[in-house]
Amino acid sequence: MASTSPESAAATETDGSIQIRRLELADHERGFVSLLSQLSSCPDLTASEFAARFTELAAHGDDHVILVAEDSSAQERRILATGCLFVERKFLRGGGKVGHVEDVVIDATARGKGLGLRVVRRLVEIAREAGCYKVILDCTPELRAYYAKCGFVEKGVQMAVYF
Ligand SMILES: CC(C)(COP(=O)(O)OP(=O)(O)OC[C@H]1O[C@@H](n2cnc3c(N)ncnc32)[C@H](O)[C@@H]1OP(=O)(O)O)[C@@H](O)C(=O)NCCC(=O)NCCS
């Protein structure tokens, strides 16, 4: 099955009926795009638009990991959660690597059950295994407590230019 990495099995984690694994091409049909729209503006993508972006991201291999969670006991295969890790390769720190956690969202029906914690912790583990010296993310002040539970500490100030 097409997934964003040939080493996709290494990212897979199963606890109870919930499996966390790498994004697959077929997840377009399993509600992945509409799940993202619970986080930010995310208009639907046609199958070919989705496939084009999927292929582009898959070319980054383990430097761009999108995890999804699904309930393997459910009759209909639906994506319940997602989160992304982007690995930035630097000249600093002897050619060090920094992990960036992005686009974490849990379906409204599945929140408050520890799934968000599992997805982010797994992304952090993958970053550690990839040799990153730190993992960073941006979030709103309301999510400080959640990310603290995931092991993050507050550091610096976020700044942005939007276009
Ligand atoms: C924020 C979000 C990812 C949390 O996922 P979740 O699966 O509901 O969280 P969990 O059940 O794993 O919670 C883990 C811990 O964090 C706490 N927590 C979760 N959401 C929280 C919040 N908004 N504020 C404070 N604490 C929170 C939980 O109480 C829990 O603590 P406990 O272990 O002491 O019980 C989810 O609510 C979500 O998708 N929100 C909308 C999208 C979003 O804001 N994404 C983050 C973008 S930066």
Automatic annotation (TrEMBL):
Q: Example GO molecular function term? A: glucosamine 6-phosphate N-acetyltransferase activity
What PANTHER family has UniProt attached to this entry? GLUCOSAMINE 6-PHOSPHATE N-ACETYLTRANSFERASE
Query: What residues does the N-acetyltransferase domain cover?
Result: 18-163
Does the record bear Transferase in its keywords? yes
Q: What reaction does this enzyme carry out catalytically?
A: D-glucosamine 6-phosphate + acetyl-CoA = N-acetyl-D-glucosamine 6-phosphate + CoA + H(+)
Q: In which pathway does it act?
A: Nucleotide-sugar biosynthesis; UDP-N-acetyl-alpha-D-glucosamine biosynthesis; N-acetyl-alpha-D-glucosamine 1-phosphate from alpha-D-glucosamine 6-phosphate (route I): step 1/2
UniProt protein name? Glucosamine 6-phosphate N-acetyltransferase
What's the main place this protein lives? Answer: endoplasmic reticulum
Instruction: Extract the CDD domains matched here.
Output: NAT_SF (cd04301)
Report the EC code(s) recorded for this entry.
2.3.1.4
Q: SUPFAM superfamilies this protein is in?
A: Acyl-CoA N-acyltransferases (Nat) (SSF55729)
